[in-house]
Structure formats: C-alpha cells, structure tokens
Amino acid sequence: MLKILLPTAMVGPTTLTPNKTIWLSPTTCATAVMIIPLLTLNPSDTLTNPSNQALGSDQYSSPLMMLSCWLLPLMLMASQNAMSTTLAPQIQMFISILATLQLTLLMAFMALDLMLFYIMFETTLLPTLVTISRWGARPERLNAGAYFLFYTITSSIPLMISILMIHNLIGTLSLPILQLTPMTNHPPWTNTLFWLSTLVAFLVKIPIYGLHLWLPKAHVEAPIAGSMVLAAVLLKLGGYGMLRVTNLLTAQVNTTYLPLLTLALWGALTTSLICLRQTDLKSLIAYSSVSHMALVTATILARDHLTPTGSMILMVAHGLTSSMLFCLANFNYERTHTRTLITTQGMQLTSPALTAWWFLACSMNMALPPTFNLTGELTVITSLFNWLDITVILTGLSAFMTAVYTLYMFSATQQWTLPTNATLLPPTQTREHLLMLLHLLPSAGLTTNPKLTSAQ
C-alpha cells in the first residue's frame, strides 16, 4: 500500500519546481501514481494484508482506487486553462490541496479498520471544502461550501456513534473480523435506529433523493477539478461505505430496507424529471449524477447476489462519464463564459470536434450499446428485478427519462441556431482532445473486460 501512498504524497512537493514546470512536474508525478495501481492492484485480492494490519485492498476498493488514481492527472490537465491567470503560489496550493484530497481518498478505500475509515471519510471534507470555497467562480461558493459542510458533519455524527456501538458489542473494528462476526440481535426499534444511524452518512454522501440539496450547489460553484472529483470519486465513497456496512448489518430484517429502497427508485425518476427543468448545464449534469447513484443505492439496499458486481460496475462507469461531461461543460464555459443552455446552443457549427466528444459522452450517459455503462445498468436492473418484480416500472421510467434529458442536453448545447456572440470562438486544443481520450480509453477497455471491476 505504501507504494501507492508515497508517490501520491510526493505530488504536492513537486509544485515547488520553477514556474515553467509548475504544471508539468505534478502531472508527470500524478501519472506515475496512476500507473502504479494498474500494475500492482488485483481486484480479486482479499481484504487481508499480512504486511499491514491497517491498510489493504480487495474487490470493493481496488476498482475505486484505480479510478481515483486515474483521475488525478486529468484534474490537473483540466484546470490548467482556468488557472492560467493565477499567481504561482496559488497554483502550488491548488495542486497540493488536490494531492491531499487524493491521499485521503486512497486511505479511506484502503482502511481495514472502521474507525480509520471514518477518520479518512471525514478528512476528505476539508480539502474538498477548500477547493469549492477558495477557487469557485462566484460569491455563492461560500453558501455551497456551507451546505456541503453541514450536511456532511450532521450525518456523520450518528455514524461515529454506531461505530463506537459496534466496538462495544464485538470488541473490534477490524473489517475482516467483522465480516465473519454476526451482529447481536436487539429489539426491532433498536435494530432500526442502529441501522439508520450507520447508513445515513453514506446516504448523504451518495446522495439519496431528499438529502441531495448540497450536491447541485457544490457542483455549480466548484472549479472543474472540484466537480470532477465530486462526481467521479466522492459520491462513490458513499456507495463504497454502504457496500461495507450492509454486509455487517446482517441482523436487520429486509423489510426495513423497503422505505429507503422505494425512495431511491422514486428519486431516480424524480431527479431525471428535474433535469429537464434545468437551465444551468453543470446543474443538469449534477442532477443526472443523483439519478444514476440512486440506482446504485437501490441495488445495494436490495442485497441481491448481483449487488456487488452491478453497483461497482455502475459506479466506475458513472465516474468516468460524469467527469467527461463536466470537462465538456467546462470547455463550453471557457469559450462562451456562460453555462446557460439557451446561450450555448449551436456549438457544433464552431467546434465540430467537441460535438463528436459530446455525442460519445451522451451515448455513455444513456448507456447505449456497447458502452461499459450498459453492462452496469443491465446488472443493476437485473438485481432489482430479482428483488421485486414491480421495480420494472420505476427503473424502466427512470431509464427512459435518462435518455430524454441526455438528448435534451446534447440538443440544447450542440444544435439549433448559433448565438450572435458566439460566432468567433477559439479552436479546440490538443490538451482538450487528450483529456477526452483519457476518459474514453478506460471505459472502452472495461467494455471488453468488465471482470476488472467485478466484485464477485
């Protein structure tokens, strides 16, 4: 594990290089961090780690660690144009904050102790909050940071109490031991309260509909790197936590899952309808993330034998797709200086190459064959059907509405009449095409071999 953590920790000090290489050196170091997990991590590994009792990896954490390491150099590449007018000390701090966030995320995924996981889970709040409130574009970034802060802290206090309760009941917080130790039965109301207090922090982070109000605000006000890491990794931290703790809460009867599972499926449909009402491009993509992650939430709560595989595939696929969509939205914003859909229409007349990338990203978001997203959605829908047949209604409607709002997003940004203020726009850059290609390549590779992210 140290061979992954140490290179990640060294990304920050590389910002002390001269100004001409202030982006090149950290990006090169981050690329090395990206390559190491691809060569060393095996998704079929077990959770135990003989050389280290605190850190390890298995089929749940390895795909998400690879995704995190893959996105770090992409975040640095995407931020270069936006930070071009920023002073060198501010750029150094920005890169160091991203490296710190990456380090805390990796340690959260590697943690073999529940309390260590909780500490790292909470530590990710600080660099994310600084990224949003310091480098956001508008004054509303402070309000968005406050929403993110209080939602996270309020929901995490019950989780800490439940972790302490687990320690009192079993005498250990080691995940390998907890997976083999059944929870002690309690009266029904105690079981329900304990179950809700354990899951609520992850339901806010993922987030479930009704606890999602912090996410659109955070996405709209965050810089491009903040939006990428929020959608691609931080939301998956909630799904990862749910996969971990639902295996421990075996004493809870399945009927308790019904209200939240129904809310998750209803939220997937509702947020898809909300997407059709959005006028801000980043807000639309943020609500689409809520819709997709609602399916992951429902799948995890259903606790079917396909739950680990389907939820993991869909989380990795959505991480790549949402990051790609936010990058494309940022490309539009850098050219038109607005995210309002009605003022960004007709972009295919000035940037046909970006329109091709938009088409590929929208195809992935709709889970068209043969994309990797289709594999994830088919597995998730099969898992939900195995749990209850009536879920065909809500999942079918949400899948249909996903296609509707994705086509609306593509049409509103690329087609129709070009505004008069957008007739002279700068051409596309090699950096932008490379950024899109590095999002597309892992998705295309995983399409040919989905077992790399399988959690069976």
Write up this protein:
The chain has 456 residues and is mainly α. The protein folds into 3 domains: 89 residues, no CATH class; 117 residues; 181 residues, no CATH class. 69% of the residues lie in helices and 0% in strands. It has 18 helices and no strands. The protein is globular and about 70 Å long.
Class inferred from helices and paired strands: mainly alpha
Give the amount of beta strand, in percent. under 5%
Q: Summarize the amount of helix as a percent range.
A: 55-70%
Number of helices: 18
Look at the structure and give the mean pLDDT: 85
Which helices and strands, and how do they pair?
Blueprint: H1 2-9, H2 24-40, H3 61-79, H4 88-110, H5 114-123, H6 125-135, H7 141-170, H8 175-178, H9 188-205, H10 214-221, H11 224-246, H12 257-275, H13 281-302, H14 307-336, H15 352-365, H16 372-387, H17 391-414, H18 430-448
Helix pairs in contact: 1-2, 1-4, 2-3, 3-4, 3-11, 3-14, 4-5, 4-6, 4-11, 5-7, 6-7, 7-9, 7-10, 9-11, 10-13, 11-13, 11-14, 12-13, 12-17, 13-14, 13-16, 13-17, 14-15, 14-16, 14-18, 15-17
Organism: Paleosuchus palpebrosus (Cuvier's smooth-fronted caiman)
Protein name: NADH-ubiquinone oxidoreductase chain 4
Transmembrane segments: 21-40, 60-79, 91-110, 116-136, 148-173, 193-215, 222-243, 255-276, 283-301, 313-333, 354-372, 384-408
